[in-house]
Write a structure and sequence with these properties.
The chain is of the alpha+beta class. Helices cover 33% and strands 13% of the residues. It contains 3 helices and 2 strands. Strands 1-2 form a two-stranded antiparallel ribbon. The protein is globular.
């Protein structure tokens, strides 16, 4: 997933950091802003959803091609 995000957002992301955690924590943050939380949603996001969340945060007008359909 990290590699896919870096390819999709190659000019927009400086990097992707994966941090191990315990206790059912699965969060996606951009610049310390929470954009997805397992504890809130009680589910894991699909890769397509992760891409849309990131796109909506950094460049809402960007077309993600087949991921937008």
């Amino acid at each position: 997933m990290a590699q896919e995000l870096l390819q999709t957002f190659e000019t927009d992301l400086e990097g992707v950091q994966l941090m191990p955690a315990t206790g059912g924590t699965y969060e996606i943050l951009i610049d310390d802003q929470l954009i997805f939380s397992f504890k809130v949603s009680r589910r894991f996001p699909q890769p397509k959803e992760i891409k849309k969340l990131i796109r909506d945060h950094i460049d809402p007008d960007r077309d993600l091609g087949h991921n937008d359909r």
